[in-house]
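Quick log. Single chain, no ligands specified.
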Amino acid sequence: MKAPADANARRAIPPVICYPDTTLPRPDPAAMAAHRARLGPSDTVIVPPRDARCFRVPAGGAFRITCVEGPQVGDLNLWNANDLSERFYSGKTRALHGTHLTTGDRMWSVFPYLRPMATILQDTLDWYGIDAHGGSVHDVIGTRCDPYTNTLLGGDPYHHCCHSNLIRALASETGLPLAAAEAHVHDVLNVFMCTGFTRDTGQYFMKASPVRPGDYIEFIAEIPLLGALSACPGGDCSAEHSSDTAACYPLMVEVFAPPAGAPPWPEPQLNGYDGSHGLPNG
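-> predicted structure:
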C-alpha cells in the first residue's frame, strides 16, 4: 500500500512506557546483601550438557547459577514449591522490567498471584548492557527451544531441546507423568543468553554469549521455590540451538539456606486484586 501523506508524522509520535515502574515494590539492596551474608551452603546441582535438573530453595534462601567449564546458556523455570500453579510469568516480567533482566530485577509469578518469586542479587554480566546490535543478556523474550518448532521448521523431533529437558527433569523430581509435567513447563528466563530483535525485520536473534567460566547470576528466593534449569543444546548459542554439534558445557546451581532458627522470611503477599472481573459476585 502507498504510505499516507502524514506517514512520517505518525512514525514520529513519541512512545509511552506501558507500565511505569515507579510504584513497583523495590528490594532494599543493603538489607538483601546483609541477609545474603547470613546464608550458608545447602546444596549443589550440576546440570549436564543438553539436559536439565531440578533444585529446591527455601523462602529467604538464595541460588546461584554459574558457568563452570565453557560458554553455556541455560533455560530457567521457577514454580512455587508448594503449588505448581504459581509459576514464573516471563511476559509480565518483561512488561515490568524490560526484555532483559539484571541486578535488582525480579521474576514475577502468573495471575492471579502476580508477586515476586525471586530477586536478582548479583549478575557478573551486568557490565554488558545493550550492544550495537541491540543485544543484551538474560532475556525474557525468547521461549525455549522445543521439538514442536523443530518439527514444524525442519521435520526434526529433537528430544534434547530445553522444553523436553525441563519436562523430564520436572517429571523425575515430582513423579508426575510426562504429559502432566509438560503442562507445567513454561516460558523461561534465558540465563546468560545474548539476544535481541533485528532493526530491519524485527526478528528474534541470538549471538555468542559473553559468559565465561566463573560468571554467575544469583537470586534471593522470595517464596519457596522449585526450579528447573536446562543446559541448552545450543551451547553459547553463537550458531544454532537444538543441536548435537554445538560445544556444550555443564552449569552449576548452588543453593544457600538461612541458618537454623532464623526468623521466617517475609514472603510477598498475593496480588491484591479481588478477582471479581466486573461482576457483582465475583
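The two ends are 47 Å apart (CA to CA).
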